[in-house]
Amino acid sequence: MREGDFDQFGEMLDAVCMLLSRGSYIPSAANSALWFRALSEYDLDAVRSAFDAHVKDPHARNGRRREQPGPDSFRRRSR
After folding, report:
1. What is the pLDDT of residues 3-22, one digit of tens each?
2. CB-based contact 37:2 (threshold 8 Å)
3. Could you give the C-alpha distances from 8 to 14, 49, 59, 65, 74, in angstroms and in order?
């Protein structure tokens, strides 16, 4: 991702976190920046696809699996 993608990325991240936390997530610029740095090697469309796959995963929706930012979690989602 490029620096110009940060705002759009932050909106996506906040939406996913709000959905999966059932509204208990509090958006944070520091959290968005951490995730952005961790996933910066991927393009925005690939990250969006991974977020979409994560949201559709029934285990994620039930709170059984919490992803951490990083290449391993991204690779599982982008397949």
Report:
1. 999 999 999 999 988 888 88
2. no
3. 10, 14, 26, 25, 18
